[in-house]
Structures are given as C-alpha cells and as structure tokens.
Amino acid sequence: MAIYQTVIFFVPSGFGNREDQIGQLFSEDGYFDVEKIWADCHKGISPLKLANSTFNTENETFWEYYGANDLSIEVNEKGVVQCVRARVDARGYRPGDLKRILSFAHVLECNLFLPEFKKYIKPSKSAMESLQFLLKRSRAAQHAKS
After folding, report:
1. DSSP E strands, the chain
2. Half-sphere exposure (Cβ direction) of 75: Cα atoms closer than 13 Å
3. pLDDT tens track for 94-118
4. How far are the Cα atoms of 59, 93, 102, 140 from residue 2, in angstroms, in the given order?
5. Choosing a second label site near 134 at 20 to 30 A (CA), which of 38, 97, 114, 122?
6. Cβ-Cβ contacts under 8 Å for 53 (sequence gap 6 or more)
7. Burial of 110 (0-12, 13-18, 19+ CB in 10 A)
8. Can you tell me the distance from the alpha carbon of 4 to that of 24, in angstroms, rounded to the nearest whole number?
9. Domain boundaries in the chain?
C-alpha cells in the first residue's frame, strides 16, 4: 500500500459492527486482523463470485479503476476469502469510485471499516458524506498534500 492510499475493509454486517465491538477487529498485539473477520462469515455467499458478477469478470481477485484506486479480494490456497478491501488514492478519486465501493458493500451486506479512524460506515444514502469526510482527514490525504 502506498502512503497516499487509504485502506477500507469490508466487514460482514454480522461481525462486530458496533462501535463498542471494534476491539474484536484487532489482534492481541493491537494490529488490525482481517482474517478474523471472514473466518466464520458469509459461508453461503461467495464475495468472489459476487464481485466477478458485479464487475462482469471471471475468476478475478483484483480490480483497478481510475489511478491507484482498487478493490481486491484475498483468498487462501483453498479459495476461502480472507480479506475484502478497497484502497482509495488520496491524490485523486472520483465520487463514482466511492459510490462503487459503497454499492459493493451493500451487495455484499457489509459495512466499511477504516482502521485508521476505528470507524464503521454503513452503506446508506448518507454514507458518501461520511466516507468523504474521513478520507479528507486521512494520513494519506496529508501525504498527498505535501
């Protein structure tokens, strides 16, 4: 990840999605633990299949769009999803990029989690404003300005 990118993780709606449960998302050492999120979630729904169907691709795990903005799904050797994330380039992104992220979160029945702020964003009509607010205040945005 580049210093001008902000990482946004997709968290299934049933996993620790309240502010008081944020601690569940971090390891004992204080690091954000992405594998923990998908270990027991979405057993019946394949985020990978949904992504390929949404983006009209086959067997892809990485989709780049406009500059250094991207969406990726990491899978292990058995094909089990371990991480779903988006990276947003603070040097320049379009509202359509953020809409795509929010729409995909809605389709996956996920909330977005920004570890830098320890904040959830639920994909709703007001989510775009919240997402833009946080992105403008991110460390990536500060690096992009300098």
Report:
1. 5-12, 62-65, 69-75, 81-89, 110-114, 119-121
2. 15
3. 888 899 899 889 988 889 999 889 8
4. 26, 15, 22, 8
5. 38
6. none
7. buried
8. 27
9. 5-133
